[in-house]
Amino acid sequence: MSSLLAKHYSLYTLKNIISLHVLVDYFGSKKLHRISKGSTLTSTMFQATGTAPGTSGYVNITNLKGGKVGFGAEDNEGKLDATFVKSIKEIPYNISIVQISHALNSPEAEAPTAAPSQLNLTEIMSKQGCKAFADLLTASGADDKFNENMDAGLTVFCPTDSAVKGFMPKYKNLTASKKVSLLLYHGIPVFMSLQMLKTNNGVMNTLATDGANSYDFSVSNEDEVVSLDTTVVTAKVLGILKEEEPLIVFKINKVLMPKELFKPVVAKEANAPEADAPADSEPADAEDNTNGVQGLGGGRLVMLVLSLWIGILLI
To answer: Where is the composition biased (Acidic residues) (predicted)?
Structure first.
């Protein structure tokens, strides 16, 4: 750790180095010692986020003599810089934290990385068909919360102008605090590319998540279409307005309506006679919902976090 910190990498370079140590597949102690054919390449968050050039975001895991397991970055000329020390924590097929002997060396991950250019969220949305939503963020003051989270990573789902226009009668009936909660519900406090959304279906927490008021929604995809289901309404991702890490802005076809503020749609019984569906759900008391906070990203993303970097994560 001291040798790494002594190099005085920028925050954004450290982010790349750390992401190289987070694998997007599950590797418990048993699996590490039983690698098929003795060696495998596995993707990391450095690769999955699209930051790594070429295949430099892959890590080589190889079973060595004497029961040892070696690790090395793909772009490190085949060198295995580190070996498995011990397992710290394992939740089978969900998450595994292991200790390794040394940091993984990677010229690409360690390359100087400049800070992202200053991004104006409301300006980005206003110029690309989401001006109505941008105006609501500014008027309510919710834009400050979005901007505070941008450096750490931010995913925004912006309803089209026509969607916001149709929703305004309901929006006007909300109290000021509930308006802010609804707007914050359209942001996830982490950068999630389109590919990451497709491969990490499940429950997502939002900027509005607060204790018992979970303010979450489920992400799913069918073919190339990504959907966001709040249990009140299901919105579809129409496209990307801006993707420049740490910010990504998606355009969606509906305003996301949280179950904490609106009545969930009750599924019809299979044999029940069909009835005309209501045009929209009615507002509900936020205190009626006491769902617990769900884990960010559902349960599909399986990561192996190498404990050597826990200290950096706390910086």
So the answer is: 277-288
